[in-house]
Design a protein that fits this description.
The complex is a heterodimer of chains A (86) and B (200).
Chain A lengths: L1 H20 L3 H26 L2 H33 L1
Helix pairs in contact in A: 1-2, 2-3
Chain B lengths: L4 H22 L4 H21 L3 H26 L1 E7 L2 H4 L1 H16 L4 E7 L2 H9 L5 E4 L13 E4 L2 H10 L6 E4 L19
Parallel strand pairs in B: 1-2, 1-3, 4-5
Antiparallel strand pairs in B: 3-4
Classes of the chains: A mainly alpha (86), B alpha/beta (200).
């Protein structure tokens, strides 16, 4: 099971590198979405590993609310870009 | 929990991600992109907190630290890092030759200072000056109406903010636009013809 987690941490590094390299704000948003989903899944795996339901519930909440936060952020950034281009 | 031998093998790997993402926030100069980095930092911080057993701390970090704080900060940055420039309605269509290059140049110049340009249209010259005096806009752009045979003159920009005037004075070539600081003693009665015209 630890190996699975190590592999997930390795996968988490891919969007981190992407966020570090790409200057485009939408690529960074994508990396953010990827990272927030991956971290919540890792939290869920850890919850199963430790048989701790409290952490599991928090993982589910972060997984669902993280997407809402992303939508809010994307909406505002989109409007900023519209004003800049227009 | 964290000090059990099975836990510690990957716990350190996860915890190493925290300073890495924190460094990404610090070295980012664009405010919007820095806020996205802050979101990444929040997600990883929530992971570390949950892993070490602080489920409540992780939930607070995700809800308040990441979602609420970032949304409020983006709104604040969007409304503060902007230069509002008052323009005459329909001006772009009349002076197409100078108008678009000037706007492009201004946008590129302000972008270096992480500012964006917002155009606020007004009906006539008088409304423009009133808006500047009432601090509705940070600057106004005045286009001289050239006589049919006169040569084209660059537009004038009158700014109210001293720092913006300094930036314009050093970085804006006079061929593109002529920038001046708007002082309070210019306030006098609303000018029928701007004092700038007297120079020509």
């Amino acid at each position: 099971m630890t190996l699975v987690l190590i592999a997930m941490i390795g996968a988490l590094l891919i969007p981190m590198v992407e966020a570090l390299q790409d200057e485009d704000i939408w690529q960074r948003m994508l990396a953010f979405a990827s990272i927030s989903t991956k971290t919540s899944v890792i939290i869920l795996v850890i919850a199963v590993l430790q048989d701790d339901w409290m952490i599991g519930v928090v993982g589910v909440l972060i997984l669902s609310v993280g997407n809402a936060a992303l939508m809010l952020l994307a909406q505002i950034i989109k409007r900023v870009n519209d004003v800049m281009d227009g | 929990m964290a000090d059990s031998p099975i836990m510690s093998s990957y716990a350190y790997a996860i915890m190493l991600l925290l300073p890495l993402s924190a460094a990404m926030v610090i070295f980012q100069s664009n405010p919007y992109q820095a806020l996205i980095m802050r979101g990444i930092l929040g997600a990883i911080a929530a992971l570390v907190y949950a892993m070490l057993g602080g489920a409540d701390v992780a939930l607070t970090e995700a809800l308040v630290g990441t979602m609420l704080a970032i949304t409020l900060y983006v709104v604040a940055v969007r409304s503060s890092l902007v230069m509002r420039l008052g323009v005459l309605e329909g001006e772009g269509a009349k002076n197409n030759l100078q108008w678009q290059p000037m706007l492009d140049y201004l946008r590129a110049m302000l972008k270096r200072y992480q500012l964006r340009l917002e155009l606020v249209p007004y009906a006539d010259d008088q409304a423009l000056h009133q808006a500047l005096a009432a601090k509705e806009v940070h600057g106004i752009c005045l286009m001289d109406r050239p006589e049919p045979n006169a040569e084209e003159v660059a537009p004038h920009i009158l700014v109210r903010v001293r720092r913006l005037a300094e930036i314009f004075a050093t970085e804006l070539p006079e061929a593109i636009a002529e920038a001046k600081l708007y002082r309070d003693d210019d306030l006098a009665p609303i000018p029928h013809t701007p004092t700038l015209m007297e120079e020509h």
